[in-house]
Write a structure and sequence with these properties.
The chain is of the alpha+beta class. The protein is built from 1 helix and 8 strands; from the N terminus they run H-E-E-E-E-E-E-E-E.
Length: about 130
């Protein structure tokens, strides 16, 4: 009987843990407000975040995540809740175009596009039309 109770408790704890992981990921994505762009330091919208409410970031060298750490070349995931595509660049002030994140879309891991820890500036409505 003790073994049955222990196995049942263990299964219950594992199920709750799995649900919690899914909920945390959904909450992280949901925490990016409407009409904003959110840059995260970790994959899948985790870690500290920088919230862009304007239309551009000329230099991430002067931008910090919420935890106070500098965001330059440290962005790993992006949520774009704006109605314009977001052009991202390797250098400050729009130098060396990397590509874009579509309007009202997100990228959970920038390494899939080759942009992980490379972004130094970003502009909404970027005029560059090619994407890697």
């Amino acid at each position: 009987m003790k073994k049955l109770v222990r196995n049942t408790l263990t299964s219950g704890v594992m199920a709750v843990a799995a649900i919690s992981v899914c909920t945390v990921n959904a909450e992280a994505a949901a925490s990016c407000p409407a009409n904003a762009v959110c840059f995260y330091e970790a994959a899948d919208f985790h870690g500290s975040m920088y919230l862009m409410t304007g239309s551009e970031v000329n230099s991430f060298r002067v931008v910090n995540f919420y935890d106070g750490s500098n965001a330059n070349d440290r962005v790993t995931s992006i949520i774009n809740n704006r109605n314009s595509k977001l052009g991202v660049y390797k250098d400050t002030y729009g130098g060396h175009y990397l590509g874009y994140v579509g309007a009202n879309s997100k990228v959970g891991n920038l390494s899939s596009k080759g942009w992980d820890n490379k972004i130094s500036s970003a502009y909404l409505g970027s005029t560059n039309s090619t994407s890697p």
